[in-house]
Amino acid sequence: MSAAGGKSSNTLGFLTVEDCTQRGLFGGYLLLNAAGRPLEFHCTAPVKPNRAQQILYGTTLAPFLYGEQIGHTLLREASLAPSVVLTDCVEMHALAPLVDCPVVLVEQALPARASAVEEANLGATWDWFAAGSHRVAMASGGAAERDLVIRQMLSLPAQFDPAEPFERIRLAIAEAAGPQTKAA
Amino acid sequence: MDLTPGQPWRAETLSPAVHGCDLQVDVRPHYSGWTAALARPPRVRLETLAWQPGRPGVVSIPIARRRPRVRTCKFAAIAYEAGGQPPSWDATSERAALATGAAAAGDDSATALSTTLSATQRTRVAPPEDIVKLEDRLFYVLQPPLESLLGGALALPFRPFPYQYDGVAFLYPRHAAVLADEMGLGKTMQTITAVRLLLHAGELRRVLLICPKPLVTNWQREFDLWAPEIPLTVVEGDRDRRHWQWGHQQAVVTLANYELVIRDREALSRVEPAYDLVVLDESQRIKNRGSATSEAICSIGRRRSWALTGTPVENSADDLVGIFEFVAPGLLTPGMRPRQVAQNVRDHVLRRTKDAVLEDLPPKLVRDAELRLTPAQYETYREAEEQGIVRLSALGDSITVQHVFQLILRLKQICNFDPVSGESAKLTQLEADLEEIAASGKKAIVFSQWVKTLMRLSHKLARFGPLEYHGRVPARRRDEVIERFRRDERAHVILMSYGAGGVGLNLQFAQYVFLFDRWWNPAVEDQAIARAHRVGATGAVTVSRYLAVNTIEERINQILIEKRELFDTIFADSADGPGRGPRELGLSRQEIFGLFDWQLPGRDAA
Fold it and tell me: Is B564 left (phi over 0), alpha (psi -120 to 50) or beta?
């Protein structure tokens, strides 16, 4: 983990990327304490790949932008190190090898998959498992990390909705970047 | 070769005879001298040429790997959570708090807050417009939804209505706020909950709450119910005790009434440090700028100022100027145009009405029945008005508002019944309306401000089984009257005075309300109508407001309409929207005089 602060078992990271048609990708990273209160928030300026990047990166462009460019940058900026980073972006699997805390995809926060192909692609990249009442996935990591994620998720009460903090991030991005930040 | 039969075959016997023939041709070389030439090595000329192959053209496409710029906000840790249990993520403590809350409520039928919070209902705190710094705005944007904050250790004893969550979300981030909800929508609960959240978030440490004296116990009771963990001190007793209380405040919330605040103004001015929040209940008390009350209140040191009122505008937009002298000094100035007032206070005032926010309420159909007095009745009215005006004019500068008021009462009584002929245009209309109501088996409530009128009506409406509920009915009999009205199928009408029947009764089973005469103040009329039109009513409620045209009633009504329009202009953006306006716009002294085109005498005008 690149963040300066020590890892806290009471701190959860929520990482997402807002795709705004006109302006590009805005990354948002929210650190919450155990009570769900904000501790830190970081958001990026819009990131927009040029034509060359689109051609040369091909299908790897999205994971590169989401994971390496945005996700990794945001995590490096944070002074607190969370025990787990939750995300609602399937492209964030590229972040997992770059950080030393588990990057967890939360099914509850994902938009509904339109097709079986999407479902299959998701299954191919992410390794799904149940953590308490939540269904989550990790792109890499061993049994120890998986146990850590399960313990973290089990420590949350039943009524906790892991999709909710992502709404906060989107509102905060809109506040920081202006009202024209409209999701694609 | 011949072979005889029986002779063995042998190879030699088969060999053919061979005859040779020399085919050698005699060849003789001819020496021409060329052979030596052919034996000489060839002469080779070497030439070295430089080879410069062309390099392929290369186009370099840089792939930017610059990291994006990042904006960072860090928030101070919330103090109370440092060592405590997380309030929203701890189901165990929520259940404990629920049990405590239910016990405090002492009401088994109350709906306790479910342990499972609704995923769909999320009330978020939006930063007010006057917060400019992005970090401060994001602090509010990034807070959890109120439904989440008010779970766990901060669980409420009852589930608030969605509009109440909105009210809490409105107050929470504001340093200058006016909560102007219609009476009965729970301003007290919303305020206590917002204070509680801010206290637990460490944003408040000391709060002063000022209310009218009769409401002190009500506030205590409400704090016990909604925030039992918050220490509360009531400033009371003799002067020495009060001064000691002002100077040695340990309590988080201090409760005082207006009169004591004025009396203890000096002691209050020495309170250090300044209060984090001062809340004014019934804040219309400071509408008159420069009054002792206003000056005493506005001099209290404070960081946040909240005002609660059901009637932010009683007479004119300047009433709001008075309140804003406390809430946000300088935001409004006297004489400001209503539209400008509306623009300036837009982000500071929240106003909702029951009609707008209580979705379970059945529709209310209001019709103004404009009636012409009978000729004899009008003649009596005209004579009384002319004589009264002459008599009052003769009083000159000694005329008082009481003199004018007496004339108005007299004229209004004539609009009900002609004391000379006994005729009543309103009674005729009421009888016609009740015929239809009784025929359909329905029930009606008739309101008047005079017991005498009600008793007269009771006599005239005997065929509809009338019941009376007013000041002359002994208190011990009143429940019986209501019960009979509920049960007795022959009792189609109950005759009520505004004073006795206007509050506290549940008459949802009545589908019709008649205002036989009009009260001075729409708030009282609305209270009366609310006896039938309330949660639990099974169908639409029809309200008929009787109004005698070309009389004082029409002029009073016109003034009240204009005030409603003024109110609507100022609060057009509020939840109730235009047309649902003010409820407590009584007549000022100037307006009472103006009903007869008189000017307020100098002494009264001052």
Answer: alpha
